[in-house]
Design goal:
The chain is an alpha+beta fold. It folds into 3 domains: 51 residues, Uridine Diphospho-n-acetylenolpyruvylglucosamine Reductase, domain 2 (2-Layer Sandwich), CATH 3.30.43.10; 117 residues, Uridine Diphospho-n-acetylenolpyruvylglucosamine Reductase, domain 3 (2-Layer Sandwich); 107 residues, CO dehydrogenase flavoprotein, C-terminal domain (Enolase-like, domain 1). Helix content is 36%, strand content 26%. The protein contains 13 helices and 14 strands. The longest helix is centred in the C-terminal third of the chain and has 22 residues. It is globular and about 55 Å long. It binds flavin-adenine dinucleotide (FAD).
Length: 297
């Protein structure tokens, strides 16, 4: 099936207008941002909304990357290509550029948005993994005001989020912490494809040891998966190959992959291990630490 079912079309003029339209049009209304997830689903008749509310005119209101003293705030309508090109974002969180380079192709990246990516809640989604890794929080707005939720609270299952029918995601906030870096590693079947498995890592060093570390995996669970046991295992340890090896072991044990066309459970656990180690190693290298002594990538 290549033709969507008939639908009515509205263009929102502001965030408040979009929320008002969602409330007025009810359960059969859906927001459309870049359309790169929703339109394919409509063509396959996996989604059959009666109303589409186009939010692309809200780019002035929702398309931004702003730094405060404490965090970076990214509007939900910020496009992949804008995340890829933003130098201050790359300086603070190189994981974004690592991930964006391997998301789809320029056609998708020119239109697809951060908000649409997180709200699609595909378990293989790369930016959800990035945001989980960076301990992001999500700002959700409805007619009664705003609420802020963690990534764990935001994702409720595959293709399911904390955003209610008459609400929208407006902003993602990422805390800024000194002494850190980050990286993203992904294995895909061909360039621009969804992940077989991907791993994000963020690492903070102080006094020669790991002050904190976070890992977020994609495509090995119901949603992108943060692994607190890795943080606990690495805190206080020197940033060495032994530490990355232990983190990889935990990742392989903790994840919950399924066998599908992209690979077996065993292969995906192996990738979770290997990609976790690579992402931590690359984060450490970005902080001037090279503990590999020639071992691996
Ligand atoms: C060929 C192809 C390859 C791809 N490869 C990858 C890949 O490798 N990795 C990857 O991560 N992604 C990939 N994608 C997905 C791509 O990143 C999409 O851009 C993204 O999933 C959805 O963003 P969008 O803005 O297009 O959302 P849309 O399709 O417009 O919307 C998706 C869903 O989110 C809802 N929504 C959108 N914005 C909001 C909001 N602000 N508040 C509440 N709900 C909202 C919509 O109602 C809809 O339910 C690929 C897509 C294509 C077509």
């Amino acid at each position: 099936m290549q033709v969507p079912a008939p639908f009515e079309y509205e263009r929102a003029t502001s965030v408040d207008d979009a929320i008002g339209l969602l409330g007025r049009l009810g359960d059969e209304a859906r927001l459309i941002a870049g359309g790169h997830s929703l339109l394919p689903m409509m063509k396959l008749r996996l989604a059959t909304p009666e109303y589409l509310i186009d939010i692309n005119d809200l780019h002035d209101e929702l398309g931004y990357i702003r730094f405060t003293d404490d965090d970076v705030r990214i509007g939900a309508l910020t496009r992949h290509c804008e995340l890829l090109a933003n130098e201050p974002l790359f300086e603070a969180f190189p994981i974004f550029r690592d991930a964006e380079k391997v998301i789809a192709d320029p056609v998708v990246r020119n239109r697809g948005t951060l908000g649409g990516s997180l709200c699609q809640a595909d378990p293989s989604e790369d930016l959800s993994s990035v945001c989980t890794t960076l301990n992001a929080s999500c700002v959700i707005r409805g007619a009664d005001g705003e609420r802020v939720v963690t990534m764990e609270e935001f994702h409720r299952g595959p293709y399911e989020t904390a955003v209610e029918q008459n609400e929208m995601l407006t902003e993602v906030r990422i805390p800024i912490r000194a002494g850190g870096s980050s990286a993203y590693e992904k294995v895909e079947r061909r360039a621009g494809d969804w992940a077989v498995v991907a791993a994000g890592a963020a690492l903070w060093l102080a006094d020669g040891v790991v002050a904190d570390a976070r890992v977020g995996l994609a495509a090995v669970g119901a949603n992108t998966t943060g692994i607190p046991a890795i943080s606990e295992a690495l805190r206080g340890r020197p940033p060495t190959e032994d530490a990355w090896t232990r983190a990889g072991e935990i990742a392989a044990q903790a994840c919950e992959p399924v066998t599908d066309g992209r690979g077996t459970v065993e292969y995906k656990r192996h990738l979770a291990d290997e990609l976790t180690r690579r992402a931590l190693r690359r984060s450490a290298r970005r902080l001037g630490i090279d503990a590999t002594a020639g071992a691996g990538t």
